[in-house]
Amino acid sequence: MDMSIQTALIAAGSAFLGALVPSVFSYLGKRQEFKNAKKVRLNEIKIQVYEEYFNTLQNMVQNSNPDNFSALQSSTIKILMFADKGLANIVNDYIRRLVQSTTTTPLTKEQHMDYQTKIINEIRKELGYTSSDLEKIEIVRC
Q1: SS3 string of 49-105?
Q2: Which of 37, 51, 87, 136 could form an S-S bond across to 83 if both were Cys, CB 3.0 to 4.6 Å?
Q3: Which residues fall within 8 angstroms of residue 43, CB to CB, at 6 or more apart?
Q4: Residue 115: C-alpha distances to residues 25, 30, 89 (Å)
Q5: Kindly report the CA angle at 80 between 76 and 82, in degrees rounded to 5?
Q6: How far apart are CA 16 and CA 19, in angstroms?
Q7: 93-117 in b/e burial notation, b at 16+ Cβ within 10 A?
Q8: Cβ proximity of 141 and 113 under 8 Å
């Protein structure tokens, strides 16, 4: 092979690699940036959903009627869409027990408080609080 062709091929290969490396790093950086933005947005949505759930739950506790119960079920569905497995299981178990308690023995005040305490602590855990950040809390009713 002619020496000038070899030199041209080497120069072309070097130029190609020189252009490829920054492009790959740029792609990887943008990809990571997108993942981080998606995670931040998901956390913002979770906070809104969790706040709505607790407000709806509080309305249900204060005034147990079919409209408030329907709102609680809708809010529970949102939780189940966005929550991690641990929180979804607790919330699902709680709503199931609430539904069953309409035909069987109602939940006691202590059982409600226990479920709500588990839910709030699981939410805090899911949002990234560790036991060293905040002590677990217990729901207290007057």
Answers
A1: HHHHHHHHHHHHHHCCCHHHHHHHHHHHHHHHHHCCHHHHHHHHHHHHHHHHHCCCC
A2: 87
A3: 127
A4: 47, 41, 11
A5: 115
A6: 5
A7: ebbeebeeeeeeeebeeeebeebbe
A8: yes
State which amino acid sits at residue 62: Q
Q: Residue 61: exposed, middle, or buried by beta-carbon count in 10 A (0-12, 13-18, 19+)?
A: middle
In this structure, the dihedral spanned by the alpha carbons of residues 140, 119, 75 and 66, taken in order and rounded to 10 degrees, is -50
pTM of the model: 0.69
CA atoms of 41 and 52, how far apart (whole Å): 17
Q: At which residue do the structure tokens 């792609």 appear?
A: 27
Amino acid (one-letter) located at 106: P
